[in-house]
Amino acid sequence: MIKSGLCSITFRQLSAGEIVALAAKAGLEGIEWAGDVHVPHGDIAAARSAGEKTRSAGLEACSYGSYYRVGVSEDRGLSFGSVLETAVALGAPAIRVWAGNKDSAQAGEDLFRRIVAETFRIADMAHRAGATICFEFHGGTLTDRGTSAVEFASQVQHDAVRFSWQPPHGYTLEDCLAGLRGLLGRLGNVHVFHWTIGSPDRNTVTPDVRPLKYPEDFHRHLLADGEGRWSAYLEAIRSSQRDHTALLEFVKDDDPENFFRDAQTLKRLIGRT
Hints:
alpha/beta; TIM Barrel; eight-stranded parallel β-barrel; two-stranded antiparallel sheet
């Protein structure tokens, strides 16, 4: 089953209560709460409050978007213990993390080994707390593209390790599907958005044409404009025969009305209308 949800980071300027109200009005089923704004690391009171608000509205706090960088954050003063304690207070069963702070092509063997070793350490901690860690499929990390994510996944076999997929920018549908299918056995939640690179009316460009600049090279569109791609992604995700939450993120113009449009599109695509 694929459920519907919202990443709270989509509306970082809004309060937790306003986020819950938007998600409930849109008829969604869950919220991933952001650790860099709505539920700060170590703020147990904020975590409990957000969790209670979510459940009171009939929604699930399905994930904690911690932005914890495995292999990096501990040295910078953010302990996974604090992240885990916050997620538990929130009532989130999954903790989204990042695999380091370098692209897979730039990360040397030492960093790779350090990230793998720490993955097992924090996965053990999460498992004891009844939670999982989910590596986001993201640029600037070891999971920046399909092949690197699958390779990393093969090195971190653990019951508490999952992967939180999103389509990498600038790649063909076939490339994106290959990466997704390579992670299906370990797939957690999915981040849903439709962006293009290059001119606003182009579907995609190869990402190594030139260095990309954020945000001017990235253009947000209504989810309905990417329905063809997302129908293919969701068909692949269903084939896992496991439960996932498809979380809306980064709506066009940060506009709540566009969010409601995207929510209707998502629910229709996953059959949850």
